[in-house]
Write a structure and sequence with these properties.
The protein is an alpha/beta fold. It is about 35% helix and about 20% strand. It contains 29 helices and 28 strands. Strands 14-13-15-16-17-18-19-12-27-26-25-23-20-21-22 form a 15-stranded mixed beta sheet, sandwiched between helices. An 11-stranded antiparallel beta sheet has the order 2-3-4-1-8-11-10-9-7-6-5, sandwiched between helices. The two termini are about 55 Å apart.
Length: about 850
């Protein structure tokens, strides 16, 4: 084959098909031209819309005249000293979002040199008996991948084939073991890759060669551009699957001590009775026996009851789980007690941290049609997901029991659940059956026609005067909305908002601007009165108001929690109760992916959004429209528009791609036509996301998106090899240099030497998110779980290094010994410096707030 050009990637959505055709036409020179074309799924039968994916020429020549090349494996091995195992290669590809099935795993080992690489390939076991191929597609793809490996590129982007000058095929492979040799051409550029590849059998005889293969850099967005018409790989939902019998998952029933924060209906008391019958010791705490408004009450509780608890069970303390339209200021369960409990647990210093269960009653609609009776408790689930991220040592498990069952029945079900030792951390117990949460792709129903709004109706956008709210308003006006109500706490005070309102009015859209705080019921009542007096009937609401006040759980205050929860949760509840008698077409809550996945330093935000998710389910269960969209980060509008370059880079490193406003609004239009209560819209590279947040932690919730490459234990890190090979006296210096380097990356500093060994990292600008980032990087390099509060407890490079040497490396390397007298003296000095920090200074370090930003 000659002059092969790859014009367009053929991207096929999951569970869909594409019709392709290969057209071969004779040419004057005796050869043939070919085209590979693909049809859109809807138009294949009509033969109208198609895309040309590949073009080229085919000719037949005498293979004996073309080459007599043979491979000198030993000579190449001497030039390529660096060996890579297959697991490393596929891990590197997975980081780029390339997840290959088993039939594509041909690479056994690679030896790299200077712009060249040698690869030993073996036919995968799964292909035994598949003898119909001249060259299996997985073998060809592995040859392409070898050329990329030879570049020494560590970029998150990859190269996709663009052109091949010649692809020569000589003979079939007669053995399952092959050798491939790739050489990168010297004229390769940063954005382009050119090179040649030769494939040989085990005797060194050539099988095929690719001359002049040119690849071009492309990110995930470019590769998946063909999918963007339906955004199918962005859409997610939670499904509840039956987990099987309890006996199959039951763990040992060792005796221990339990701490139970009891509810008012008696489940906690009956649970304690069941545990005590088995010889367990239980400490029951009621809301009237502890001052839930005083954080020190929980610290004293642990001080008065020393020792480790086997488990802590926190039951949502609500007497009546049902909400009515008269519950104006108490739409959610009080989170103050739980926040103070968590903070006391974090600082308790247990040798063996207890497992934490957060128990709700009727806070999960296992199926969309079911009534969500315990709506007020839903924020506990959002907060629980954040606990799992920030403090995996507590193995926080959210459990929802039957709302209609008796306290005795629920206590028995909960007692049985406590004995199960699996990794499930989201559980629903219904009528003796255990259901567990799984993230899955959401599939939208086919709809016809473009979305149009009623020109004789009014539409309300809360947070409508911020960047995102204004984009939504202009988008709605383009689709027929003639009457828009935009509300925000400060009104149209900014020039951007004023200019946008003028543009809308110039397009013949009537805009009512209302200065109101939707978290205040009186403000919402007044707003609806103004709408009723001056505008047509209200037919739709988009609730996009909210604020951020990020901080790790240990540094949060209840006031900061309330500041974030009020506009989202209380605001949504006021909008709900005050429009119950209005025939709305839609009621949309702009939620966040944080309530689905959790997010470090966003416990309050996740809790607030979880309530809105629950409200959408609740509304639909009572016959009202409701939709909660768990958005990923938006670009150019909302929070993402105010982020620093470093914060945007951090989002990208987590595997998340920002949603462009035009993409998000296109999806919003499609979702408004769907009959669903909740959907996640999240562009994510799953391998990078899971490696960043859950490396070393098996979370069944994400099992559908965990690839074999993600689960495999990658070969030992370079840092560990260096530490193991070094003398004990050198290990500390190696570790300090590495920590400095990581801290510099987190801080975006070019020179790690600028970081003093005993300089407080928080004084250099590290915030709580950066501290977690630094801990995660160290954890990945050491292959060992580290305490979540590492940087808070040891806020200096030297302190971190000494802690790791004494408490981590000592258990990993058999030749580690007790610190020398000199090291002990240095440790004592450092400890003294840490203890000399005043409480106010420590508070300033640990409670450094990320800039508070209003999201509209």
């Amino acid at each position: 084959m000659e002059d092969v050009i790859f014009l367009q990637v053929l991207a096929i959505p999951e569970n869909e098909t594409r019709t392709v055709q290969l057209l071969v036409t004779p040419e004057n020179e005796g050869g043939f031209g070919f085209k590979l074309i693909g049809f859109d799924s809807e138009s294949a039968d009509k033969n109208e819309t198609y895309t040309v994916h590949v073009t080229g020429k085919i000719s037949m020549q005498d293979s004996g005249k073309l080459t007599d090349s043979a491979l000198d494996i030993q000579d190449i091995r001497e030039r390529c000293p660096k060996e890579m195992l297959a697991s490393e290669v596929y891990e590197m590809q997975a980081r780029r979002g390339i997840l290959l099935g088993p039939s594509y795993h041909w690479i056994d080992a690679i030896w790299k040199g200077d712009n060249e690489a040698l690869c030993r390939m073996k036919s995968p076991e799964i292909l035994k008996g598949a003898d119909g191929y001249q060259l299996h597609p997985g073998l060809i793809d592995s040859c392409f991948g070898l050329l990329v490996t030879a570049t020494n590129s560590d970029d998150d982007e990859t190269y996709i084939p663009f052109r091949i000058k010649q692809f020569r095929f000589y003979r079939r492979a007669e053995s399952s073991e092959l050798w491939a040799y790739a050489r990168v051409q010297e004229n390769s550029e940063e954005s382009r890759l050119s090179g040649d590849i030769q494939l040989f059998d085990e005797n060194g005889q050539i099988i095929a060669e690719i001359i002049g293969l040119e690849g071009r850099k492309a990110g995930r967005e470019a590769v998946l551009r063909g999918l963007r018409k339906n955004f199918s790989d962005w859409l997610y939902e939670v499904r509840w699957v039956e987990a099987g019998s309890r006996e199959q998952g039951a763990g040992d029933r060792e005796q221990g001590k339990w701490l139970i924060f009891s509810d008012r209906c008696g489940i906690g008391e009956r649970l304690a009775e069941r545990l005590e019958e088995q010889g367990e010791e239980c400490l029951l705490v009621f809301s009237d026996t502890i001052d839930t408004k005083d954080a020190h009450s929980y610290t004293r509780l642990f001080a008065e009851n020393p020792g480790n608890f086997r488990g802590i069970v926190y039951l949502a303390d609500v007497e009546d789980i049902h909400l009515t339209r008269d519950d104006s200021q108490s739409s959610i369960v009080d989170l103050q007690s739980l926040l103070y409990l968590l903070q006391s647990m974090i600082t308790a210093g247990w040798s063996q941290p207890p497992r934490l269960w957060l128990v709700t009653r009727g806070a999960v609609a296992k199926m969309e049609a079911l009534h969500l009776e315990g709506l007020c408790q839903t924020p506990l689930w959002g907060l629980g997901r954040v606990v799992s991220l920030e403090h995996p040592e507590f193995r926080c498990t959210c459990t929802d029991v039957e709302p209609s069952a008796t306290p005795e029945q629920n206590a028995q079900a909960l007692f049985e659940e406590l004995q199960i030792s699996d990794q499930e951390n989201q559980v629903v117990l219904r009528q003796g059956i255990r259901y567990v949460a799984r993230l899955a792709r959401a599939v939208l129903q086919e709809t016809n026609g473009n979305l149009q709004f009623d020109e004789n109706a009014s539409y309300l956008i809360t947070g409508g005067l911020g960047g995102l709210g204004l984009r939504i308003a202009e988008w709605m006006a383009e689709r027929g909305a003639q009457y828009l109500v935009l509300t925000g706490r400060s009104g149209a005070s900014k020039s951007e908002a004023q200019a946008a309102v003028k543009r809308l009015e110039a397009s013949c859209t009537k805009v009512m601007v209302v200065k109101a705080d939707v978290s205040l019921r009186d403000d919402v009542v007044r707003m609806f009165e103004e709408i009723k007096a001056a505008m047509p009937p209200l037919k739709g609401i988009i609730h996009a108001a909210g604020v951020l006040d990020d901080g790790m759980l240990r540094q949060q205050t209840y006031e900061r929690f309330q500041r974030v929860i009020a506009p989202k949760a209380d605001g949504a509840w006021h909008l709900h109760t005050l429009t119950l008698d209005m025939p709305l077409d839609f009621f949309v809550c702009f939620s966040s992916m944080t309530s689905l996945f959790g997010a470090t330093a966003q416990g309050n935000y996740a809790a607030a959004n979880a309530f809105m998710d629950g409200l959408a389910h609740y509304r639909r269960s009572i016959g009202l429209p409701g939709l909660s969209i768990n958005w990923g980060p938006w670009a150019e509008a909302g929070m993402a528009a105010t982020l620093t370059k470093r914060d945007q880079q951090r989002i990208a490193e987590q595997g998340l791609t920002s949603i462009l406003p035009e993409q998000g609004l296109e999806l919003l239009g499609e979702l408004l036509k769907q009959e669903i209560a909740q959907v996640g819209v999240i562009p994510v590279n799953w391998h990078k996301f899971i490696q960043h947040f859950f490396k070393g932690v098996k979370l069944p919730f994400f099992e559908a998106f965990i690839s074999p490459e993600t689960q495999e234990t990658v070969s030992e890190s370079k840092l560990l090899r260096q530490l193991e090979a070094a003398e004990m006296a050198e290990r500390r210096d190696l570790l300090i240099a590495h920590i400095r380097s990581l801290a510099a990356k987190v801080l975006d500093l070019n020179d790690p030497e600028r970081i003093g060994l005993r300089q407080r990292l928080f004084d250099l600008g590290i915030d709580s998110l950066m501290a977690v980032d630094l801990k995660n990087r160290l954890e990945a390099d050491l292959g060992h779980a580290l305490r979540s509060t590492l940087v808070f407890d040891y806020p200096m490079v030297e302190a971190i290094a000494d802690h790791l040497i004494e408490d981590v490396l000592s258990a990993m390397f058999s030749d580690s010994a007790e610190p020398s007298e000199k090291k002990e003296q240095e440790a004592d000095t450092l400890k003294s410096e840490l203890e000399d920090i005043s409480e106010a200074e420590a508070e300033a370090m640990l409670l450094r707030e990320i800039e508070k930003m209003e999201i509209n």
